[in-house]
Amino acid sequence: MKILKSSIRNVIASEKVTVCEPLNIYECTLHDDVFVGPFVEIQRHCVIGAGTRIQSHSFLCEKVTTGKNCFIGHNVTFANDLFRSGKLNPDPESWISIHLGDNVIVGSGSTILTEFICSGAVIGAGSVVTKDILKPGIYAGNPARLLREI
Ligand SMILES: CC(C)(COP(=O)(O)OP(=O)(O)OC[C@H]1O[C@@H](n2cnc3c(N)ncnc32)[C@H](O)[C@@H]1OP(=O)(O)O)[C@@H](O)C(=O)NCCC(=O)NCCS
Questions:
Q1: What top-level class of enzyme does the UniProt entry assign (predicted)?
Q2: pTM of the predicted protein model
């Protein structure tokens, strides 16, 4: 049996960053005052904006970037290989990258399957976001739909 240990590897982070072990984060950048809860995985080429909180059990696939002061609730999943051809896509270069603007709030248990969520958007708990969110508001459901503008 081969056992790989979860680790913090090649992370660029300021002294004002807080992370809770155990977690598995590598080849990513965490800006000032970022908080990362336990049992989180953040993969390579992610950049987490200043003041952003990532709560426990969330998964950030490669190439997720967030703006400032975002809140990623517990057990949120970001996915970048969307299986569009009906199978795993072996080419990471063609996986989507995902960008969140500033002050985005993602409710617990949500899944993000799209490339862009604008600043100020709120995603309800358990939502599945399948389309870009281009204007601030509260979105929820599967697929996530606008509940109301804010
Ligand atoms: C999305 C949310 C912000 C909406 O709050 P709200 O504006 O007060 O909405 P309401 O409770 O008035 O609900 C409005 C409608 O949306 C529905 N709704 C609310 N939240 C929903 C959700 N997460 N998914 C699907 N539908 C939802 C309600 O059932 C209601 O439907 P109806 O009009 O058919 O009765 C809130 O319900 C939510 O999910 N917050 C996330 C909380 C969270 O994850 N916190 C993590 C902290 S650790």
A1: transferase
A2: 0.97
